[in-house]
Amino acid sequence: MARLENKTALITGGAGSIGLITAQKFLEQGAKVILVDLKEDALKEAVSSLHSENVSYIVADVTQSAQVENYAKLAAEKFGKIDIYFNNAGIEGVVKPITEYPEDVFDKVIAVNVKGVWLGCKYVLPIMADGGSIIITSSVAGVSGSPGTSAYNTSKHAVIGTMRSVALEAAPRKIRVNTVHPSPVDNRMMRSLEAGFNEKDAAGVKSQLEKSIPLGRYAEPSEIADLVVFLASDESKFMTGTLNIIDGGMQA
Questions:
Q1: Considering 57, 85, 152, 218, which one is annotated as catalytic?
Q2: What is the tens place of the pLDDT at every residue in 117-153?
Q3: How confident is the model at residue 193 (pLDDT cuts 50, 70, 90)?
Q4: Residue 193 falls within a domain, yes or no?
Q5: Is 149 in contact with 141 (CB distance < 8 Å)?
Q6: CATH number of the domain where residue 177 is located
Q7: In total, how many domains does the chain have?
Q8: Adjacency order of strands within the sheet including 176-182
Q9: Has 57 been annotated as catalytic?
Q10: How far apart are CA 12 and CA 76, in angstroms?
Q11: Which one, out of 13, 86, 116, 153, has a CA that is 20 to 30 A from the CA of 59?
Q12: C-alpha distances in angstroms, 189 versus 8, 118, 141, 176, 242?
């Protein structure tokens, strides 16, 4: 039997690279999936690319409590339950020293990456099926620092606290709550950050970052998705409150 047979999954940031490939793998493992993201055009394209009758979408801003409450309610109504919640939506902000970092950008990063995660747990947890799984996307930036990305680092550290608190609150219902911590991933976000570090030599930035990873390369979105599938499945049924680092050895 497929690993996620008869399970339903909700994915925020569903039109992004990690969200989309995770949706594909969830579907391959038998789950029904709902994607949540900010832009309907991107969601329509994502759903179309998945070629499945078992996927649908909801447009929502994860920073707005009414919209989060609504997507949770609609997701539960669509498939009757929510077994898996991949709380994944996030943005990178800009690359600037803290003394020059724009306060409005900081506020936006915190709103999406921290408040969005917190609101998601607040409204999805009450309607999740007992024995379910919540997976929150953090980053290696959630366990270490880097210059120029103070807002992003702050946000990715913060969601660990959310995860740990919710893991304890959800444990009586056998709902597991864990974070994933990717290294740089070969996707749009890293193209943005590379250019932010050095607009004139983004390729050089990528090369230097790859040299900082013992396995010598960025992660592929599909590799992060494989870890998420494991955490979503019953194979991880005794794991909760954990930080799952997938970084090619960066933290070694």
A1: 152
A2: 999 999 999 999 999 999 999 999 999 999 999 999 9
A3: confident
A4: no
A5: yes
A6: 3.40.50.720
A7: 1
A8: 55-59, 32-37, 8-12, 82-87, 128-137, 176-182, 243-246
A9: no
A10: 14
A11: 153
A12: 27, 22, 13, 28, 25
